[in-house]
Structure formats: C-alpha cells, structure tokens
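So, who can interpret the following?
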Amino acid sequence: MTQPSSLLCSTLFTLVFVCTPVLSAEPTQADYYKITSIPAPDGVVIEGGSIEILPEGKIAVCTRRGQIWTLENGGSYPDNDAKWNLFAEYLHEPLGLAWKEGWLYAVQRPEVTRMKDEDGDGRADIFETVSDAWGINGNYHEYTFGSRFDKEGFIWAPLCLTGSFTANSLYRGWVLRINEDGRMIPTASGVRSPGGIGFNADGDVFYTDNQGAWNGSSSLKWVKPGSFQGNPNGNIWYDFTDGAIGKRPIDPPYTKEGSRTVIERENIPELVPPAVIFPHQKVGNSPTGIEADMTNGKFGPFAGQVFVGEQTHSKVHRIFLEKVNGLYQGAMFPFLEGFQSGNIGLRLSEDGKLFTSGSNRGWGARGGKSFAFERVDWTGETPFEIHEMRALSDGFELTFTKPIDPATAVDTSFKIKAYTYIYQKAYGSPEVDPVTPTVSVASVAKDGLSLKLKVTPLTKGHVHELHAEGLTDRESRSPLLHREAYYTLNEIPE
C-alpha cells in the first residue's frame, strides 16, 4: 500500500484546520467595563455611604461607622499604591458628601456639618454645624442622605421615616434643601426609605425610594418642589412649614384601599408618580446612589444618562429619562454587576472613572463582602446595547449603540408584557393588572441605529417589560449584551 507523502499529509491537515469553524464566545461585561477593587488599610472598615471628588484628584468617602477617609491614586491603582488618610471621625452615620470653596460638607443623621483642614496635616480641625433643622430619636431607620450642591447652592436631603410606617421625628418622610448659610427649605413630602439622591443631566433632582408601605416596588423618583411622593406618614409636619410648600395634600387612598397610582393622581394633584420603577427582585431590591454621566463619552456611549446603585444585588443600573406631558418617565436597563459588596455611594470622575462604595450590614448583598471600595473603567470598546427607549403614541422607539442586523429586526425578536402595582399602605405589592400586548416592527432606520415598535395596547401607569432576544448587530452578528428593558409609562405621548 502506497503511503501518502509528507506534503500530502501537510495539505490534508491544513485543509481540515482551515475548514473547521472557530466558535468565539459571546461578549461579556468585562470586554467593555473593568471593575478594580481598591483595598482598605489593614483593620479599617470602609462601609462607604457617599463619595466626593476633591481638588487635585483626591477622593473622599464617608463611612457608616462615622469616619471620612481621603484616597490618593484611586484612579491609578494598582499602578500606583492607594494612599488612605483619616480626614475625620466620630460623625453620626454620614450618607452625603459635597465639596465647596475649601469646605467638605457631610450630611449626617442629625445635621449638615462642614469641615476644613486648616493646618494642612490632612485631618479636619474645624467643624461647623450648617443646619440641624430636623429631628432624630435613635431609631435605626432614620437615615439622612445628602446630594452635592445644586446650581442654586443647595444640598438636597431626603429623610427616612421612623421604622417603616411612622414619622416620629421632625420632617421624617421629607426632602429638605439646605444652603451653605444654613437656610432650610421644606421641599417635598411623601418619602418612605430613600437610598440616595442626585441629579440628572439637566440638574433636576431625583431620589431612590425602596419597596414598602405605599411603594409597590422600589423606584427612581423626581423631586419636583412642592410635590407629594406617595407615602402620607410624614405629612403630619405640614403645619411646621409656615406655608413654604403649600397645603397638605389629601391622604391616599382617595378612592378605595388597594388603588393604583395612576388613579390616585387624578384626585391628588400634588402626587408625582415614580419616574422609573425597578421591578422587585427581577432587577434588584434596594436602589441607592444616583450619578449622571457628564463625561462626554469618557465612560462609554451613555453620556447624559443616569446610573443608579443597587445594594442587595451588588449592581449598577442604567437609566434613560424623558419628559412627557410635564412628567418624567423612562427606561431602566441592566448595566454592571459583580461588585464585591452592596453598592451605596456612586461618583463618576470627569475623566470617566466610576467609583462605588458599599456595605452589607443590615441587609445582605450578593457580593458577599461586608464592605468594598471599587473603580469601574471603560475599556474603550463599545457594547451592543439598547441605547434609548422612547415612548411613542402607539409604541416605542429604540436606539442602539451599534447598527443592527436588519435581518433580525423582525417581530419575533421582541416580546413585551405590562403590569403595575397596588398603591396601598401594606408593605409592597405583587405585579398586578397584567397585559400582554402585541408587538411588531413598524420601521427600521436606514443606518440601523434605531427602529420603531408598534405596541397594542399601551397602558398608562404600567411598567412595559421588553425582551429583545433575537436582535444582533450588523458587523459581528453578536446579540445584545443586555436584552431587557423596563419602561415606566406615566404618560402616553399624543
């Protein structure tokens, strides 16, 4: 039997090698965003509640244990050693930091305090009370969160209720505004259990509220001055406002027990519905810090959108907001996961680095660690994602970060369902009033960067949960990195 020559063997081997398909793995989060854990000093617990960027790139983080630490090289670790310094201690669970004109302001449970390192040794030596115009009584639940300064020079502070159902201390269940001169303005009522407060790209103020009494599910809420946010337990303090916020709204339910927010809005003019609802357990249990992307693309393709921390699931959500008929509404998209503890504080630096701080004390967190301080860097690669989800009169318009493959922009690539929650004094709510609309692709843009979906029916007041399993991008035929979106439809555009 004639043996094949070595040349023939080589040729056959080559043909087999070339013809065998190479299957590449689907893209993952790590291809686009890298999470770096920055270790704390030995024996130090950094249960961070808020983060602020100081001059010369230093970072300040306040902890639930009453300390404020500053960090050098937070943006360049591990290439450079992380250098921590104790700036202040013995505060009362601060959950807000803001820097202004040489002072670091901290929002503690009982007051807003400002501090300064006058002798230059890295430690605060001047402490001044800016405002203590609200009450505390020692209840574990009476947290006070704080924003940075707004464009008019005010810090915004939402105050948790006492426990989950009462307001046993002055202004519990309210959002207050405090300026550097100590002036306090009662601004909105109806708060239950906030987890953070911040601004969107336009400078409007939002806070996150957690599922519980009068909150069927957790949500992102717009703090319109003079508004009622839905929980009436703190409305007992209207008599102390001297008319600064207007009259006390009617206590819900106006119609019947077990109502819906969309119904109660018709009878309680001050009631502002949640801008974006986070379906409980599906996307998280405890939303926290709020940070708008003002980096002009240095943190990826989501400039102008809002990121929201998630404590229980150790995540960060991405939020697209729009105003329809004078009310904010929009979509929540999954964004980042895999953090080591429960995220509370978020801060995005001007050069596009997202810092997170977290804790799991009091509530468990998927990350597993009792605390963590971490940094997220964009790799420079753009993920294939739904960029925006806008409401139309008969459906939604989706935009994308990359052109879609038109062959996959078909009806069967999309599924949608809608539901809402009971508006009630009982704790939380299941999903109720389910609707299964029909969905079809109405049009696809020539550049592949957007399409319109016809959705019948659209239901005012419902969360519209979209799944886009079949879509792929035009170039690599890869699926969406995240295939779900949750749009809260407060108003249907005309």
Summary: The CA atoms of residues 98 and 326 lie 30 Å apart. The first strand starts at residue 33 and ends at 37.
